[in-house]
Structures are given as C-alpha cells and as structure tokens.
Amino acid sequence: MIYSVVPKALEGELRERLETHYADEPGVTVIAERRQGERREQASSQGGARELRDRRRRRPGDIPEVVV
Description:
It is a single chain. It contains 2 helices and 2 strands; from the N terminus they run βαβα. It is of the alpha+beta class. It has a domain at 2-45. The model has no long low-confidence stretch (mean pLDDT 80).
C-alpha cells in the first residue's frame, strides 16, 4: 500500500486532483495529514521527559580477553 499524504494547508486544492490522478492505481491511497505538531514538542510541554541513551556504553561485567 502506498499513501500519498497531502498537507493540511493544501488539502482543498490537491486532494481531489490526486485522487483522480491515482484512481486507476489500486495500491495508492490519498490521505490528508492529520498531525497537529511535532510529537517531541508535545511531550516536553506535557511534562514528559525524553530519555536519551548512549548505545555505546559498556555493559556491566568482565570483558572477555581477545586472543589473536
């Protein structure tokens, strides 16, 4: 399934034209964007703290010796 996402500001102008254009393509669906804003901005304004992790940090325990 392929989605053609139309920005909210251009929905009235483009959505109908794109639906007509892709009418013969069964795997394409035209949808209007529904997001109101960035998720990260909403989470920080609601008091949620985003956890940052360092994926390179060492795990606890002994590191096995490498024999070359």
